[in-house]
Fold:
Amino acid sequence: MNSPTLGVNIDHVATLRQARYARLPEAHNVEPDLIAAALACERAGASGITVHLRADRRHLQDADLGRLQTVIQTKLNLELGNTPEIVAIAVALRPADVCLVPENRQEITTEGGLDAAGLRAELAPTIRALSAEGGARVSLFIDPDPLQVRTAAELGAPVIELHTGAYANAAPGSPARAAELERLRRASELGASLGLQINAGHGLNYENLRPLLCAVPNLAELNIGHSIVSRAVFVGLENAVREMLGLLRSNDGNFR
Ligand code: PXP
Structure:
């Protein structure tokens, strides 16, 4: 059993804010406050704050980034698509971590992993710029596929984040779920053998976390957003983060 650290993705706190205030830029009573949310996650023991600056700015706004970078005490993990505009923002911001993700405008959330193998030529200069000029530790968000893992190592990315969406979407107890866990286990072992740090995320929740931890070795960091923000509606954000950390650190089952 390993005990990875927790990065809390607070994009959906911004989603809630934008639902009301996107068209009211002058409003004085904007809520919920994204910075307060980040600080609550840190108070509860999160090791990092993760946000995704999307090209369409559907949740996080540019102004949020500078504030988060200044105020948080842990580390900022900025998810970004490989577009010149967003890469330039990341290089200037110099967050501790960046995670390159695929992005298309129609998707509701990040749907699949980055095709590192197919996009090798475009990714190489971006990884160089983010690490050399931006001073960031670069992660590639990829499916648990051996070709993608090997390509990440060849491209010189020190970290991969394994996409757990297919695992999360498979029914508990189903053969599909077992197969996805096995893919994740193999990808993690391959990545570790190539010297990569292994992170994971997408679709993780209070139910599916423990089976993942039991099956997949080497996990250094998990990035979890939607389920924590959803649980916060009922128990508050600090408690929601604490509950997730409790699951990460203990062997007992479910809080609910
Ligand atoms: N990791 C990455 C790279 C993501 O793109 C996302 C979703 O934005 C997450 C983790 C968090 O996923 P979820 O909100 O489903 O927990």
